[in-house]
Design brief:
Layout: E1 15-23, E2 29-37, E3 40-48, E4 54-60, E5 66-74, E6 77-86, E7 89-97, E8 103-109, E9 116-124, E10 127-134, E11 137-143, E12 149-155, E13 162-168, E14 174-181, E15 187-194, E16 200-206, E17 212-220, E18 223-230, E19 239-245
Antiparallel strand pairs: 1-2, 2-3, 3-4, 5-6, 6-7, 7-8, 9-10, 10-11, 11-12, 13-14, 14-15, 15-16, 17-18, 18-19
């Protein structure tokens, strides 16, 4: 539990956020996030060695808002997903960076509406699976290695629905987690089970009135463990919510 090293990144007069981190086989780390300044934001990538020393820092995007929400190692480079604002519309953004953090390629996608963003990504056979939100739905994309769409699937009921976390399941396919806006019950934690092409097997929602959402997923047996947030039983604040579900999305008792 002892601190090995600690680093503060960024200039003192800017606001910066880390949203994601990926570890290399050599102990290095790639950090993705954003730097806010003058009413705009830039996607920031920073690479640190195993001792925590900064090897390089790169910024991408602009003008407007550009944010990196998830990052993964991709051969000798990195894959990042997040959002990029273009002509007043926030679009789901994929950026492939070279080993030095410079841009290899970038593509943006939108389902419609002003708000689209990528929140999680996983390698898959023949490319990447990317989860986020588009046109107020959970949105799962299957992309090839150069960012072209193999397939696109959306889930939700027309409220403010967003995907935040994604995991591959041992039996195949994916489990998605996020938030589902349900009207009278408010914002509920939602889980969606899909096959390998994103076709929905089941959708399950949990929570009482208030705001509940899934933020992390971990396969567990035939089901999964879910970490999220709820304000259903909180006296004026939000609480951590941990739960387990079986293979068909039923909450488990422990």
């Amino acid at each position: 539990g002892a601190v090995v090293w600690s680093r503060i990144l960024g200039a003192v007069d800017d606001t910066q956020y880390v949203h994601a981190l990926a570890l290399g086989a050599d102990g290095s780390a790639i950090v993705a996030g954003e730097r806010q300044a003058a009413g705009e934001s830039r996607l920031v990538l920073v690479k640190l060695n195993a001792a925590g020393d900064v090897l390089w820092s790169q910024e991408h995007g602009g003008p407007g808002r550009s944010i990196g929400y998830a990052v993964a190692i991709d051969g000798d480079g990195f894959m990042v997903t997040g959002l990029r604002e273009l002509a007043g519309q926030e679009r789901l953004w994929m950026l492939r960076a070279n080993a030095d953090g410079s841009e290899d390629w970038s593509l943006d996608y939108a389902l419609g509406g002003p708000f689209n963003a990528g929140r999680a990504l996983l390698p898959r056979a023949g490319g990447w699976a990317v989860l986020g939100g588009g046109d107020k739905d959970l949105w799962l994309l299957g992309l090839d290695p150069t960012g072209d769409q193999d397939w696109s699937q959306r889930y939700g009921d027309g409220g403010w629905d967003q995907g935040f976390c994604l995991t591959a399941m041992p039996a195949g396919g994916y489990l998605l987690g996020g938030v589902l806006e349900t009207g009278a019950l408010g914002r509920q934690l939602v889980l969606v089970r899909t096959d390998g092409a994103g076709n929905q097997s089941w959708l399950a929602s949990f929570g009482d009135t208030g705001a509940d959402e899934a933020r992390a997923l971990f396969p567990h047996g035939a089901g999964a463990l879910v970490a999220g947030v709820t304000d259903a039983d909180s006296a004026g604040g939000a609480d951590i919510w941990l739960m387990g579900v079986d293979a068909t999305g039923n909450a488990m008792s422990y």
